[in-house]
Amino acid sequence: MSIAGAALVDAAGRRMGVTRSTGVLLGRHLTVFSRNWTFFVTGFAEPVLYLLSIGVGVGKLIPSFDVGGHTIAYAAFVAPGMLAASAMNGAVMDATFNVFFRLKYQKLYDQILATPLTTGDVARSEITWALLRGGVYSAGFLVVMSLFGLIHSWWALLALPAALLIGFAFGAVGMALTTFMKSWQDFEYITLSTVPMFLFSATFFPASTFPTWLQWVIDVTPLYRGVVLCRELTTGQVTWGSGISLVYLIVLGCLGMVLVGKRLERLLLT
Amino acid sequence: MPYEYPSVTAAPQSPGVPAATDSMVHARGLRKTFGSFEAVRGIDVDVHRGEAFGFLGPNGAGKSSTMRMIAAVSPVTAGTLRVLGMDPQTDGPLIRARLGVCPQEDSLDPDLRVRENLLVYGRYFGLSRRAVRARADELLEFAQLTDKAKAKVDDLSGGMKRRLTIARALINDPEILLLDEPTTGLDPQARHSLWDKLFRLKEQGVTIVLTTHYMDEAEQLCDRLVVMDKGAIAAEGSPLELIREHSTREVAELRFGVGQHEALAARVADLADRVEVLPDRLMLYTEHGEETLAQVHGRGLRPLAVLVRRSTLEDVFLKLTGRSLVD
In terms of CATH, what superfamily is B19-238? Predict the structure, then answer.
């Protein structure tokens, strides 16, 4: 930048760019979390443990597994599910509990809104932080998958951006829901929705085992779209359906983010 | 050794500056309602460059609501408001870029250390890392917190926290410093140290807008102030003007036995401009306290205790806003 003391909103009235305003808030979180990085470990360990116990352990009982006409190892079926779920969990954890704490107790957003930054900046950067957190878990998990020989296609390189997209959708929706929460008890609803999604979104077994009507329901849940997308990428079976998942997650994330901005305005700029 | 508050924008104004830039805050018929509750009921306010301006009033008078509107974090319900010549509705970020805000409750970032609070907050204003580092060290010095740079915010005393909050509000070298009840909850030493800091800022040309319900604070700091009550402005002027206009020069306080004050009030009513009956004393508002007292004695009245003193802003305040408790 230019001379010392030049603010992003300078004398000429230029506003700070989206990237920089997001960056300064991410910088705040990085400063904080550079001191408490240990809790990152738990979010990383969870999907790996599931992969070991169910993918590898239960997989021993399932000699071969048929997905869309292709035969793959059961672990290779479960792994992309865990990949998507870790992105979801990482993002949701941050966009719900941590956001609620910053919103209601730390009053962090009140501090930020006293500066040139806006509710849109807060929404964008908090969701970005959430998706990055999910993304770090997913990246680590992808490495584990490749070590276990569970990646069958170069398409898998795109599984990381896919995981970031899952984090984006869940971070945005999670934070939007959080702005409606009154107390910590309300977070039961978050658990109540993420756990069933984690168990039934074709993570451990294909959705085709369900009756048709239930398949329709599962079809439109966000984690299912994420799991299917990740699985198509890591097994190399990319279809037009992958595009639908892509669009679905992008739209969901954008809607969530806009809602977050509106809600913060309503809650804080009274 | 006196420390100079580092200032760029607050230089003394040059003669060529147009008059419009001298209006830091300009409000006409400013209103704020929350549902059916009218917090601010149409006030007119003008704050000029370099001034220390106070909003004085009991709790619930509408001071904080007004401050939030000026800080461009609370939409105006009706009326006109211009801050630094701009409309908060449309130019919020531009206004906030040139304001320093010290809220009523210290809203420091407890996850960050003392110095980090300044660094991170400066980044919110888009200052470069290098600029913000230099500025943070200057401000730590100013706030006498250099030794505490690496301390946790939660470990600071109340006075230190407030100094850090003010230092943080100065990170962007603001043209207006907004302080909402800056010394509430501080001990006398901390209050005086803070007044000293604010006075120095004012000398540097920073425009200060503050709310308070402490009369001594208003008298110490404010060039001009408005007394607010129930969302409206009850009086406006310098502390001296207000005293002159709304009170007498002196007050004689007479204490008699419990329960006698009501009855005795009638016997001294003609000796003062105004007589106020309190459960424990009579207050005689008069130009010359000692003379009035002599006349009281001349009527054969023997108070148990007397106090003759100058009128203060507190007398004005209580006259204008009443003695009943506001919850």
Answer: P-loop containing nucleotide triphosphate hydrolases (3.40.50.300)
Instruction: Mutate one of B99, B101, B107, B111 to test the A interface: name it (highest A CB count within 10 A).
Output: B111
Which architecture characterizes domain B248-310 according to CATH?
2-Layer Sandwich (3.30)
Chain B residues with a Cβ under 8 Å from any Cβ in chain A: 8, 34, 71, 73-75, 92-94, 96-97, 99, 101, 103, 105, 107-112, 116, 119-121, 123-128, 130-131, 134-135, 172-173
Residue of B nearest to A105 (CA): B107
Percent of chain B with pLDDT over 90: 64
A91-116 pLDDT, tens digit each = 998 999 999 999 999 999 999 999 99
A7, A13, A25 member nearest B125 (Cβ): A7
Strand A70-72 versus strand B78-83 pairing type: unpaired
CB-based contact B316:B247 (threshold 8 Å): yes
Chain B neighbors of A7, CB-CB under 8 A: 97, 125-127, 172
For B88, the 3-state DSSP assignment is helix
Angle between helices A222-234 and A188-200 (to 10 degrees): 40
DSSP category for residue A158 = G
Please indicate if any CB of chain B lies within 8 Å of the CB of A26. no
Nearest residue of B to residue A33 by CA position? Answer: B111
Cα distance between residue B25 and residue B12, in whole Å: 18
> Per-residue pLDDT averaged across B95-114, rounded?
92
Q: In this predicted structure, what is the pLDDT of residue A71?
A: 84
pLDDT of A84 above 90: yes
ipTM for this prediction: 0.86
Domain range list for chain B: 19-238, 248-310
Better pLDDT: B58 or B169: B169
Numbers of helices and strands, H then E, in chain B: 11, 13
Instruction: Report CB contact under 8 Å: B112, A24.
Output: no
**CA–CA distance, A150 with A50 (Å, rounded to integer):** 14
Sheet with B52-56, edge to edge strand ranges: B99-102, B176-180, B207-212, B52-56, B224-229, B232-237
Q: Does A19 touch chain B (CB under 8 A)?
A: no
pLDDT in tens, A205-217: 988 889 999 999 9
Contact A116 B112 (CB under 8 A): no
Quick one: which H or E segment has residue A43?
helix A39-50
User: What number is the average pLDDT over the span B84-111?
Assistant: 92
Average confidence (pLDDT) over A175-198 = 94
Q: Does A103 touch chain B (CB under 8 A)?
A: no
CB contact under 8 A, A28 and B130: no
Pick B131's closest partner by Cβ from A5, A20, A111: A5
B251 - beta bridge partners? B285, B309
Main-chain dihedrals φ then ψ at residue B214, nearest 5 degrees:
-95, 120
Sequence spans of domains, chain A: 24-268
Report pLDDT digits (tens) over A118-159.
Answer: 999 999 999 999 999 888 889 999 999 999 888 888 899 999
